Amino acid sequence: MTDYGQLEHEVDAVEGLIWDVASHVWEYAELGYKEYKSSSYVCEALEQQGFAISERGIGGLETSWVATSGNGGPCLGFLVEFDALPNLGNDTVPRRAAAKSGHPDGHGCGHNLIASSSLGAAIALKNQIEKSKIPGTIKVFGCPAEEMLNGKNYMASAGAFSGVDVCLHNHPAMVNTVWNFHSTASIDLWVEWQGLAAHAGVAPWEGRSAVHAMEIFLVAVNMMREQMLPQARLHYQILDGGKAVNVIPDHAKVLVRYRGPSAADVMKYKSWLLDIARGAALCTQTKEVVTNLGGIYDCLPNDVLAECMSSHMNRYFPIQWADEEQAFARSIQKEMGKPEDGLATTVMPVPTGVEVGGSSDVGDVSWLIPTMGALYSAWPLHIPPHQWGCTACHGMSIGRKATHQAAKVMAATGLDVLTNSALLQAVKAEFTKQLNGRTYRSLNDSPVNLSSSLDDAERHQYDCCIHAAIEHFGIQEHN
Ligand SMILES: [Zn+2]
Hints:
The chain is an alpha/beta fold and 479 residues long. The protein has 2 domains: 5-182 and 298-435, Zn peptidases (Aminopeptidase); 185-296, Alpha-Beta Plaits (2-Layer Sandwich). The chain is 42% helix and 17% strand. It has 15 helices and 11 strands. Strand 1 and strand 2 (65-71) form a beta hairpin. The longest helix has 23 residues, at 397-419. It is globular. It starts with a helix and ends in an 8-residue tail after the last helix.
């Protein structure tokens, strides 16, 4: 029987640091690809605790890094995220109110707690295995831009996760459970048409409307829905629909996100979308240009690893919430017109065979190595993520308690992986079973092994993808 008491002590010893990191990242509230301060803060905290930063700027992503400690033994990975969401800044009060700093953006998905929980678990486990002379290597991955579904997929293509035996992650939620469900694979395409501008009143026949191409495209895309699988999703956002009503628009642009149950399904419908884009161009005598901003895989479950992590969820959750915290949560529920049931007070069993419509770039990692995540109550029941009430909870004592306990769950699961070889074998066997002979091949158009193997043309194409991914969310590039 493993004694987890010493490990709990190691987590408790860095509780102040865990919350310091969570609070700083919460305050910085930087959007994807722009997490310069957040990324550095987490990275430096790990360095100060004895981790070596072995890689930076992986796959061309400036705010990514790998922090490593240990030598030999099984290699355990922890995933860190730190990006915020636009316009979700909020004070730590149970109503819609601007952040004290006036910052418009906020951690409405709690990625500040993802950063702090993984950091706390990694440091505590490192200290424990050093003291107990347990062989093992710990790698912490700083992963940018999860909200844009484009970070870990590029890191995976660059080989960042090779040599890792098991990867652990975490996410705040409204309930306590483990991430043992199957999420959707997804791809983002930026579809544009180039036409000819002309005076819309004097000589419209001289023009060729790019907006007409986009309209035909969207009509056809919505008809395609009837032939999509029930698990598939399709969303689009018009980014350019012309600039002036008296000009035949020579440019139109739409961002399309297709989600499906598998990478193979995504590739099948991507090809259909390209045909529709071309068809729309033929109809309107315009020219289509499609940019693949990046695709991600579905998340592979792992029942064995999920059972292990769930045993620790039951050890450290549910949290004993203070009356003020439950009152805080009920106020948010009241504001949002939801049942006033407060925060979760139970741990749910391991989900098996569950399909969800959402996606995460953790999917790419889960296809390369056995991967599992802790989901823990850090915002009120019935409240969806990506709104102000979550931001509020993630910056006060609810978030603080949640990240502390989540760090314990991850550290204890990690200790099991490093010390129980039979478990590690069983986890790997389950991974092989889930893969079922299928192999991972990136859904990004360009490349693999970026630094060395790309020629200039490939490098240019790759850079374009990254820049497009940055640009399409309306974010200024860093210079
Ligand atoms: Zn999230």
